[in-house]
Design goal:
Helix content: 25-40%
Number of domains: 1
CATH class: Alpha Beta
Largest sheet: 5 strands, parallel
Shape: globular
Distance between the termini: 28 Å
CATH topology: Hypothetical Protein Ychn, Chain: A
Oligomer: single chain
Strand order of the largest sheet: 4-3-2-1-5
CATH architecture: 3-Layer(aba) Sandwich
Strand content: 15-25%
Radius of gyration: 17 Å
Structural class: alpha/beta
Number of strands: 5
Order of helices and strands: HEHEHHHEHEHE
CATH superfamily: DsrEFH-like
């Protein structure tokens, strides 16, 4: 049974700001979120700018790893870093994403949507950034119905400041 933050009177609160919607960044936010909720820590996750890919229903199952400008991305089987020129070649994003998916499967890391649902079911609250939503609404025709059903609401930066008062904040 998920912890009931209000009933337990926990004074621990974590807010994660997700600003990147790539597979590795979205997964990192869910790993931290899962750890927090399993410890009974009140958790709020705020998605902004490129992090929206992680909560747009049509995109969240297609997150990719970006090998460009990623110094930790190595050529498989070596300790040689993948130069930006090599990482930018056609097919490298798909290759890197496939490789990452295989490794996460071996470690039994659930796919992004499933991981989000697990963390949500553990009591986490997910929030979409108002400014980002408004920009995407105006430029791409995004509607609230395009967001994953686990998103609580679309809130402003001021609302988030109020919500995160006294919390530990992690920016991803």
């Amino acid at each position: 049974m998920p912890p009931k933050f209000d009933d337990e009177g926990t004074d621990r609160k974590l807010c994660i700001i997700v600003s990147k919607g790539t597979m590795e960044w979205a997964t990192a936010s869910m790993v931290l979120g899962n750890a927090a909720t399993s410890e009974g820590i009140e958790l709020h996750v705020f998605f902004t700018f490129w992090g929206f890919d992680a909560i747009i229903d049509k995109r969240m199952d297609k997150l990719k790893v970006s090998p460009v400008a990623n110094p930790s991305m190595k050529i498989p089987g070596t300790e040689v870093g993948m130069a930006n020129m090599l990482a930018a070649l056609p097919g490298m994003t798909a290759f890197a994403s496939s490789m990452m998916n295989k490794e996460m499967d071996k470690l039994q890391v659930p796919p992004h949507r499933e991981f989000m649902q697990m963390v949500h079911d553990s009591g986490a609250k997910f929030w979409a950034c108002r400014l980002t939503f408004d920009m995407m609404e105006n430029t791409m025709g995004l509607t609230k119905d395009d967001l994953w059903e686990g998103v609580e609401d679309i809130i402003s930066a001021n609302d988030f400041m109020e919500l995160s008062e006294g919390a530990q904040i992690i920016f991803i």
